[in-house]
Design goal:
Layout lengths: L19 E5 L2 H7 L2 H10 L1 E4 L6 H8 L4 E4 L8 H5 L6 E4 L10 H5 L3 E4 L5 H17 L1 H9 L4 H4 L12 E5 L3 H12 L3 E5 L5 H7 L2 E2 L2 H7 L2 E4 L13 H5 L6 E4 L8 H9 L4 E4 L19 E3 L8 H19 L18
Parallel strand pairs: 1-2, 1-3, 3-4, 4-5, 6-7, 6-9, 7-8, 9-10, 10-11, 11-12
Length: about 350
Protein backbone atom coordinates (compact mmCIF):
# COMPACT_ATOMS: atom_id res chain seq x y z
CA UNK A 1 0.00 0.00 0.00
CA UNK A 2 1.51 3.32 -1.04
CA UNK A 3 -1.39 5.74 -0.57
CA UNK A 4 -4.22 6.43 1.81
CA UNK A 5 -6.70 4.18 -0.02
CA UNK A 6 -7.47 1.19 2.15
CA UNK A 7 -9.51 -1.58 0.47
CA UNK A 8 -11.34 -3.97 2.79
CA UNK A 9 -9.75 -7.32 3.46
CA UNK A 10 -11.73 -10.55 3.53
CA UNK A 11 -12.98 -11.53 7.02
CA UNK A 12 -11.39 -14.36 8.94
CA UNK A 13 -13.31 -17.52 8.05
CA UNK A 14 -15.41 -19.17 10.73
CA UNK A 15 -13.33 -21.60 12.73
CA UNK A 16 -10.11 -20.02 11.53
CA UNK A 17 -7.04 -19.26 13.60
CA UNK A 18 -7.59 -16.66 16.33
CA UNK A 19 -5.59 -13.50 15.73
CA UNK A 20 -2.62 -12.61 17.91
CA UNK A 21 -2.10 -8.96 18.84
CA UNK A 22 1.14 -7.75 20.39
CA UNK A 23 0.40 -4.71 22.55
CA UNK A 24 3.73 -2.92 22.64
CA UNK A 25 2.51 -0.19 24.98
CA UNK A 26 4.07 0.04 28.44
CA UNK A 27 1.94 -0.95 31.42
CA UNK A 28 1.33 2.51 32.90
CA UNK A 29 0.50 4.02 29.52
CA UNK A 30 -1.56 0.97 28.57
CA UNK A 31 -3.82 1.52 31.56
CA UNK A 32 -4.24 5.18 30.64
CA UNK A 33 -5.08 4.48 27.00
CA UNK A 34 -7.34 1.44 27.18
CA UNK A 35 -10.50 1.78 29.22
CA UNK A 36 -12.22 -1.30 30.61
CA UNK A 37 -14.80 -1.48 27.84
CA UNK A 38 -12.36 -1.13 24.93
CA UNK A 39 -9.93 -3.58 26.58
CA UNK A 40 -12.68 -6.18 26.93
CA UNK A 41 -13.54 -5.75 23.26
CA UNK A 42 -9.90 -6.31 22.33
CA UNK A 43 -9.71 -9.43 24.50
CA UNK A 44 -12.76 -10.85 22.76
CA UNK A 45 -11.19 -10.47 19.34
CA UNK A 46 -7.56 -11.51 19.77
CA UNK A 47 -5.05 -13.33 21.92
CA UNK A 48 -2.89 -10.63 23.49
CA UNK A 49 0.83 -10.50 24.12
CA UNK A 50 1.65 -7.62 26.45
CA UNK A 51 5.04 -5.92 26.46
CA UNK A 52 5.99 -3.68 29.36
CA UNK A 53 9.32 -2.79 27.71
CA UNK A 54 8.18 -1.86 24.19
CA UNK A 55 11.54 -0.32 23.37
CA UNK A 56 13.36 -3.64 23.89
CA UNK A 57 14.01 -4.80 20.33
CA UNK A 58 14.86 -8.38 21.24
CA UNK A 59 11.69 -8.78 23.31
CA UNK A 60 9.60 -7.20 20.58
CA UNK A 61 11.13 -9.42 17.89
CA UNK A 62 10.33 -12.55 19.88
CA UNK A 63 6.73 -11.42 20.43
CA UNK A 64 6.23 -10.65 16.75
CA UNK A 65 6.98 -14.19 15.59
CA UNK A 66 3.32 -15.20 15.69
CA UNK A 67 1.71 -11.76 15.61
CA UNK A 68 -1.00 -10.67 13.19
CA UNK A 69 -1.41 -7.22 14.75
CA UNK A 70 1.04 -4.86 16.42
CA UNK A 71 -0.27 -2.11 18.68
CA UNK A 72 2.30 0.65 19.16
CA UNK A 73 2.57 3.63 21.47
CA UNK A 74 5.05 6.20 22.68
CA UNK A 75 8.36 4.43 23.26
CA UNK A 76 7.75 1.42 21.02
CA UNK A 77 10.81 0.39 19.00
CA UNK A 78 10.57 1.34 15.33
CA UNK A 79 9.37 -1.44 13.08
CA UNK A 80 12.35 -1.50 10.72
CA UNK A 81 13.29 -4.22 8.20
CA UNK A 82 15.01 -6.33 10.87
CA UNK A 83 11.98 -6.38 13.16
CA UNK A 84 9.63 -6.74 10.21
CA UNK A 85 11.51 -9.88 9.16
CA UNK A 86 10.72 -11.33 12.59
CA UNK A 87 6.99 -10.80 11.95
CA UNK A 88 6.04 -13.04 8.99
CA UNK A 89 2.30 -12.98 9.81
CA UNK A 90 1.96 -9.28 10.53
CA UNK A 91 -1.03 -7.64 8.79
CA UNK A 92 -1.77 -4.49 10.78
CA UNK A 93 0.12 -1.86 12.78
CA UNK A 94 -2.31 0.10 14.97
CA UNK A 95 -0.68 3.14 16.55
CA UNK A 96 -2.30 4.59 19.67
CA UNK A 97 -0.99 8.07 18.88
CA UNK A 98 -0.83 10.41 15.92
CA UNK A 99 2.34 10.53 13.83
CA UNK A 100 3.58 7.07 12.84
CA UNK A 101 6.97 8.07 11.42
CA UNK A 102 8.92 7.28 14.63
CA UNK A 103 7.48 3.75 14.69
CA UNK A 104 7.05 2.64 11.08
CA UNK A 105 9.76 2.12 8.46
CA UNK A 106 8.95 2.41 4.73
CA UNK A 107 9.51 -1.34 4.48
CA UNK A 108 6.22 -1.83 6.32
CA UNK A 109 4.34 -0.28 3.41
CA UNK A 110 6.51 -2.13 0.89
CA UNK A 111 5.26 -5.39 2.35
CA UNK A 112 1.62 -4.31 2.26
CA UNK A 113 1.08 -4.18 6.02
CA UNK A 114 -1.81 -1.89 6.88
CA UNK A 115 -1.09 1.04 9.18
CA UNK A 116 -3.60 3.05 11.18
CA UNK A 117 -3.31 5.74 13.83
CA UNK A 118 -5.50 7.40 16.46
CA UNK A 119 -4.52 11.03 15.93
CA UNK A 120 -8.09 12.17 15.32
CA UNK A 121 -8.87 11.39 18.97
CA UNK A 122 -6.35 14.01 20.11
CA UNK A 123 -7.89 16.88 18.17
CA UNK A 124 -10.51 17.87 20.75
CA UNK A 125 -8.34 17.98 23.91
CA UNK A 126 -5.56 19.85 22.10
CA UNK A 127 -8.09 22.29 20.66
CA UNK A 128 -9.49 22.88 24.15
CA UNK A 129 -6.03 23.72 25.47
CA UNK A 130 -5.49 26.06 22.52
CA UNK A 131 -8.80 27.72 23.41
CA UNK A 132 -7.75 28.01 27.07
CA UNK A 133 -4.47 29.57 25.92
CA UNK A 134 -6.39 31.98 23.70
CA UNK A 135 -8.60 33.18 26.53
CA UNK A 136 -5.66 33.46 28.91
CA UNK A 137 -3.68 35.59 26.46
CA UNK A 138 -6.64 37.83 25.67
CA UNK A 139 -7.31 38.49 29.37
CA UNK A 140 -3.57 38.53 30.30
CA UNK A 141 -4.19 35.97 33.03
CA UNK A 142 -0.62 34.71 32.78
CA UNK A 143 0.76 38.19 33.39
CA UNK A 144 -1.42 38.74 36.46
CA UNK A 145 -0.48 35.32 37.83
CA UNK A 146 3.22 35.90 37.29
CA UNK A 147 3.10 39.32 38.97
CA UNK A 148 1.21 38.10 42.03
CA UNK A 149 3.35 34.99 42.46
CA UNK A 150 6.59 36.95 42.11
CA UNK A 151 5.64 39.26 44.98
CA UNK A 152 4.73 42.40 43.04
CA UNK A 153 2.65 44.99 44.88
CA UNK A 154 -1.08 44.82 44.13
CA UNK A 155 -1.03 48.16 42.32
CA UNK A 156 1.80 46.97 40.10
CA UNK A 157 0.36 43.48 39.62
CA UNK A 158 -2.90 44.87 38.25
CA UNK A 159 -1.05 46.72 35.51
CA UNK A 160 -1.05 44.85 32.20
CA UNK A 161 -1.50 45.61 28.51
CA UNK A 162 -5.04 46.10 27.27
CA UNK A 163 -7.28 43.09 27.70
CA UNK A 164 -9.86 41.83 25.23
CA UNK A 165 -12.78 39.43 25.04
CA UNK A 166 -13.08 36.73 22.42
CA UNK A 167 -16.41 38.01 21.08
CA UNK A 168 -15.56 39.72 17.80
CA UNK A 169 -11.85 38.99 18.26
CA UNK A 170 -9.81 38.54 15.06
CA UNK A 171 -8.26 35.10 15.43
CA UNK A 172 -5.82 33.66 12.91
CA UNK A 173 -5.35 29.93 12.39
CA UNK A 174 -2.34 28.52 10.59
CA UNK A 175 -3.32 25.09 9.29
CA UNK A 176 -6.85 23.72 9.01
CA UNK A 177 -5.79 20.34 10.38
CA UNK A 178 -8.07 18.13 12.45
CA UNK A 179 -6.99 20.03 15.53
CA UNK A 180 -7.17 23.33 13.68
CA UNK A 181 -10.77 22.63 12.70
CA UNK A 182 -11.70 21.61 16.23
CA UNK A 183 -10.16 24.86 17.49
CA UNK A 184 -12.02 26.87 14.87
CA UNK A 185 -15.31 25.34 15.98
CA UNK A 186 -14.62 26.27 19.60
CA UNK A 187 -13.51 29.86 19.08
CA UNK A 188 -16.26 30.58 16.57
CA UNK A 189 -18.82 29.30 19.07
CA UNK A 190 -17.59 32.05 21.40
CA UNK A 191 -17.86 34.71 18.73
CA UNK A 192 -14.35 34.97 17.28
CA UNK A 193 -13.87 36.10 13.68
CA UNK A 194 -11.50 33.55 12.16
CA UNK A 195 -9.10 33.86 9.25
CA UNK A 196 -7.19 30.79 8.10
CA UNK A 197 -3.92 30.35 6.25
CA UNK A 198 -3.82 26.93 4.62
CA UNK A 199 -2.93 26.38 0.95
CA UNK A 200 -4.98 23.18 0.87
CA UNK A 201 -8.21 24.56 2.34
CA UNK A 202 -10.84 24.68 -0.38
CA UNK A 203 -13.36 27.47 -0.73
CA UNK A 204 -16.15 25.02 0.01
CA UNK A 205 -14.48 23.81 3.21
CA UNK A 206 -13.77 27.38 4.28
CA UNK A 207 -17.43 28.28 3.80
CA UNK A 208 -18.49 25.23 5.80
CA UNK A 209 -16.10 26.16 8.60
CA UNK A 210 -17.32 29.76 8.55
CA UNK A 211 -13.86 31.24 8.07
CA UNK A 212 -12.10 33.62 5.73
CA UNK A 213 -8.99 32.44 3.88
CA UNK A 214 -5.90 34.64 3.51
CA UNK A 215 -2.17 34.38 3.03
CA UNK A 216 0.15 33.77 5.96
CA UNK A 217 1.41 37.35 6.14
CA UNK A 218 -2.11 38.77 6.24
CA UNK A 219 -3.21 36.34 8.93
CA UNK A 220 -0.25 37.26 11.10
CA UNK A 221 -0.63 41.01 10.58
CA UNK A 222 -4.38 41.17 11.24
CA UNK A 223 -4.95 38.72 14.09
CA UNK A 224 -5.04 39.51 17.79
CA UNK A 225 -4.42 35.82 18.48
CA UNK A 226 -2.68 33.48 16.04
CA UNK A 227 -2.92 29.74 16.71
CA UNK A 228 -0.53 27.33 15.01
CA UNK A 229 -2.03 24.01 13.86
CA UNK A 230 0.03 23.16 10.78
CA UNK A 231 1.70 19.75 10.29
CA UNK A 232 5.41 19.29 10.98
CA UNK A 233 6.72 18.63 7.47
CA UNK A 234 10.08 19.33 5.88
CA UNK A 235 8.57 22.37 4.19
CA UNK A 236 7.10 23.84 7.37
CA UNK A 237 10.35 24.04 9.32
CA UNK A 238 10.38 27.50 10.99
CA UNK A 239 7.28 28.53 9.09
CA UNK A 240 7.24 31.42 11.53
CA UNK A 241 10.69 33.01 11.54
CA UNK A 242 11.89 36.48 12.42
CA UNK A 243 10.21 38.16 9.46
CA UNK A 244 6.89 36.48 10.10
CA UNK A 245 6.89 37.07 13.86
CA UNK A 246 7.64 40.75 13.28
CA UNK A 247 4.31 40.98 11.42
CA UNK A 248 2.33 40.26 14.59
CA UNK A 249 0.69 43.44 15.88
CA UNK A 250 1.81 44.93 19.17
CA UNK A 251 -0.10 43.22 21.97
CA UNK A 252 -0.86 40.13 19.87
CA UNK A 253 -0.63 36.58 21.19
CA UNK A 254 0.81 33.43 19.64
CA UNK A 255 -0.56 29.99 20.58
CA UNK A 256 1.43 26.87 19.72
CA UNK A 257 0.11 23.46 20.75
CA UNK A 258 1.34 21.81 17.53
CA UNK A 259 5.13 21.44 17.17
CA UNK A 260 8.05 23.72 18.00
CA UNK A 261 9.36 22.71 14.56
CA UNK A 262 6.96 25.29 13.10
CA UNK A 263 8.32 28.32 14.97
CA UNK A 264 11.89 29.64 15.16
CA UNK A 265 12.23 29.47 18.93
CA UNK A 266 15.23 31.80 19.08
CA UNK A 267 13.40 34.42 17.03
CA UNK A 268 10.29 34.02 19.17
CA UNK A 269 12.33 34.42 22.34
CA UNK A 270 13.79 37.68 21.04
CA UNK A 271 10.31 39.02 20.26
CA UNK A 272 9.00 37.96 23.65
CA UNK A 273 11.89 39.60 25.48
CA UNK A 274 10.77 42.97 24.10
CA UNK A 275 7.37 42.48 25.75
CA UNK A 276 5.72 43.45 22.47
CA UNK A 277 3.77 40.20 22.12
CA UNK A 278 2.65 37.35 24.36
CA UNK A 279 2.76 33.60 23.76
CA UNK A 280 1.29 30.39 25.14
CA UNK A 281 3.34 27.29 24.40
CA UNK A 282 2.97 23.56 24.95
CA UNK A 283 5.89 22.51 22.71
CA UNK A 284 9.60 23.33 22.70
CA UNK A 285 12.80 22.63 20.82
CA UNK A 286 14.23 20.90 23.90
CA UNK A 287 11.91 18.66 25.88
CA UNK A 288 11.95 18.54 28.84
CA UNK A 289 12.37 22.32 28.81
CA UNK A 290 15.59 23.05 30.75
CA UNK A 291 15.00 24.56 34.18
CA UNK A 292 17.20 27.54 33.29
CA UNK A 293 15.57 28.18 29.92
CA UNK A 294 14.83 31.91 29.51
CA UNK A 295 11.23 31.22 28.48
CA UNK A 296 10.51 30.16 32.06
CA UNK A 297 11.26 33.63 33.44
CA UNK A 298 9.23 35.78 31.06
CA UNK A 299 5.99 37.26 32.46
CA UNK A 300 4.37 37.41 29.01
CA UNK A 301 4.63 33.67 28.37
CA UNK A 302 2.29 30.88 29.47
CA UNK A 303 3.93 27.46 29.50
CA UNK A 304 2.68 23.88 29.79
CA UNK A 305 4.89 20.75 29.50
CA UNK A 306 3.63 19.22 26.21
CA UNK A 307 0.53 17.77 27.82
CA UNK A 308 -2.24 19.30 25.71
CA UNK A 309 -3.63 15.95 24.57
CA UNK A 310 -3.26 14.13 27.87
CA UNK A 311 -6.76 14.36 29.33
CA UNK A 312 -8.31 11.25 30.86
CA UNK A 313 -11.02 11.26 28.23
CA UNK A 314 -8.56 11.98 25.44
CA UNK A 315 -6.32 9.07 26.38
CA UNK A 316 -9.26 6.67 26.51
CA UNK A 317 -10.39 7.97 23.13
CA UNK A 318 -7.04 6.87 21.71
CA UNK A 319 -7.62 3.33 22.94
CA UNK A 320 -11.20 3.32 21.69
CA UNK A 321 -10.08 4.45 18.24
CA UNK A 322 -7.34 1.81 18.13
CA UNK A 323 -9.62 -1.05 19.14
CA UNK A 324 -12.30 0.04 16.68
CA UNK A 325 -9.75 -0.03 13.87
CA UNK A 326 -8.59 -3.52 14.89
CA UNK A 327 -12.20 -4.68 14.84
CA UNK A 328 -12.67 -3.24 11.36
CA UNK A 329 -9.54 -5.00 10.19
CA UNK A 330 -10.62 -8.36 11.61
CA UNK A 331 -14.09 -7.95 10.10
CA UNK A 332 -12.65 -7.22 6.68
CA UNK A 333 -13.95 -3.64 6.68
CA UNK A 334 -12.30 -0.44 5.49
CA UNK A 335 -10.20 1.30 8.13
CA UNK A 336 -11.32 4.81 9.00
CA UNK A 337 -7.89 6.10 10.00
CA UNK A 338 -5.52 4.26 7.67
CA UNK A 339 -2.38 6.10 6.59
CA UNK A 340 -0.06 5.50 3.68
CA UNK A 341 3.58 6.11 2.94
CA UNK A 342 3.02 9.87 2.86
CA UNK A 343 2.51 9.76 6.64
CA UNK A 344 6.25 9.17 7.02
CA UNK A 345 6.90 12.71 5.76
CA UNK A 346 5.77 14.10 9.10
CA UNK A 347 8.81 15.18 11.11
CA UNK A 348 8.77 14.12 14.76
Amino acid sequence: MTGSADPARPPVPAGGRRSVAVVAVGGALREQVFGAESWERLLRRADLVLLDRPGDRAELAAALADADILVTGWGTARLDPELLAAAPRLELVAHTGGAVSPYVHPAVFDRGVRVTQAGAAMARPVAEVALAFTLALLHRIHRFDHALRSGAAWERAEQAPERHQILGCPVGVIGASRTGRAYIELVRALGAEVTVSDPFLSAADAEELGVRVAGLDEVLATSRITAVHAPALAGTRHLLGRRELALLPDGAGLVNTARSWLVDEAALLDELRTGRIDAALDVYDAEPLPTDHPLRALPNVLLTPHRAAATVEGRYALGESTVAEIERHLDGRKLLHAVGREALERVE
